[in-house]
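Mods, move this if it's the wrong board.
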Amino acid sequence: MIDFELTPIMKMAMEFTHNYARDVMRPIARKYDEEEHKEPTEFIQKTHEMFSSMGFSFSTARAGEEKEEKEEKAESSEKHSRPKMEMNLLGAISVEELAWGCPGLTLRIPGPGLGGAAIMAAGTPEQKKRFMKVLVGSKPSYGAMALTEPGFGSDASAVATTAVKDGDYFILNGTKIFVTGGDMADLYVVWATLGKDLGRAGIKAFVVEKGTPGLKMARLEHKLGIRASDTAEVVLEDCRVHKDNLLGGEKKEEKGFKGAMQTFDATRPMVAAMAIGIARAAYDYIYDDFVTKGGLEINYGKALHKRGYLETVFEDMEAKINASRLLTWKAAWMLDHNLPNLKEASMAKAKAGTVVDEITQKAIELYGPEGYSRRHLLEKWMRDAKVYDVFEGTGQIQRLVVARAILDYTRKELK
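Not the wrong board. Structure tokens:
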């Protein structure tokens, strides 16, 4: 039986994060959009303290622990019963609310981040314990993923950064671009190749800790949207990384490229949730003006030919937001229940990335010149929205992933 009812804890988290987004994040959203690269120090510290006290910052670590527990009990008759805490679903619900406040500031919130997700997807038990202690410690910490390079975007198998074995160390050389949180990261998960002749099998992920000689941040990007979140270019020059920092270890059975790619099965629903939060922010803003204050009546039972243009627009927006949310919740729920969610995660991100573009643009269209002005946050949300069809795999890539899954095609068969 399908159950769409949220647990009391999920409802509490939704209410708490919405209130926090409304009272703390929304009031400073414009400030940190205008003052790009200015660190919101007070916000970071306050958010870390508050969410840590509630256990929110431990979500990625705890989710990974629960996944391991489920794998150990794979033969149990209760394999797919509802776990005590569906951390990925809880995360998607909370992230939507936070992005409703400000997606850029949401990306500034301390925690495991994309780097932590990669560690939980491909790391050994020892690596998970060692590195997650850094990322969920007593001080604000952040884990970044360094994947994209000047020579490629969506094709992760084209990694050119090299890793050369030197005794107990690997020497890393290369340049990584568009690293989210690259300026504040305590550790980076860096993808590099042991040799182009090895193909995808030669691509490995290394944990490079802040302060490691040879690791440096080259510059910060000036961006269209999510300007409160810094995006960096990171350079590695003869950066020596111990073999213990090779995710999964050196054993033949280590997950390598495939394991690291599973990172995105967990993070794409979160990215989709952020996009939904932005779409909802724009929708709520114009709904309040046109419906709550303006007196527009939306009658869902009225025949289609009797509805006015604005009624149809609002109904269409609401339907798209709800459809995106259900796709996202399903992808997160499947991950919580240890079910493969590659197709569903890509569906969620592709749908949400399209919907947030459509809704933010339509909101500005309805407002006319006012919507284009900086007197409202509508233009900011439209700028913020654009990246959600780009980062962590473009919309086109998501559709390829979905098509391969449905048609049972390999990467070589469908490019």
